[in-house]
């Protein structure tokens, strides 16, 4: 719809194009951008509304505090989820919008702006859905803190996601999956088991080495010497004192006396 010979018109964005401009040439604004809207009108009080392409003709969407404006400008932080008190928009339905000016209690717009596009992390500037598998631009950075040796773990994953081809970026935080938690717990258990195995092995080695050293020490000590005076005397028995048995027998017989018993 075009308004001709009307003193009211938009400055930013530009006034509507006749015929309608190519959507690929629309200005692009990202969720979170500051949109400085300006217009010119002889009216002292106007109302600013935002219109989504292909929405119901009876639907009127207002920006926050955009009713009964007395200044020819308005600053809007682009928001589509209604968190600013404005309307909620689904960009998957259509991401083309324009502004309209109304007189107070008016039923027809007195000025229309050219269309512009709004995009976010799920819809590109052409209104196409962004595949989820192309969202991550960098590998996620994972910081894991082991709070207990075997049971409690917490981790945080920070993943940087691109919003679109422009320089506007948005950070998205994701909670770790249960699989990641299980892997951390299993790693901790394996570490404890390996540590205990090494400690036991070292203890056994030390015990065996000590036992072996004790055996070697016992084998190198000389056996105790035992002495006997009788044995020593036998060893020291002089050769010249030894007499054969025959001589000893003769000596005994020579000293033998015979006594006769009375009859």
Automatic annotation (TrEMBL):
Keywords: Membrane, Signal, Transmembrane, Transmembrane helix
Residues of the Yeast cell wall synthesis Kre9/Knh1-like N-terminal domain: 22-118
TM region positions: 183-209
InterPro entries to which the protein is assigned, alphabetical: Kre9/Knh1-like_N
Highest taxon listed in the record's lineage: Eukaryota
Name this polypeptide is given: Yeast cell wall synthesis Kre9/Knh1-like N-terminal domain-containing protein
Native source organism of the sequence: Hyaloscypha variabilis (strain UAMH 11265 / GT02V1 / F)
Source species taxonomy: Eukaryota, Fungi, Dikarya, Ascomycota, Pezizomycotina
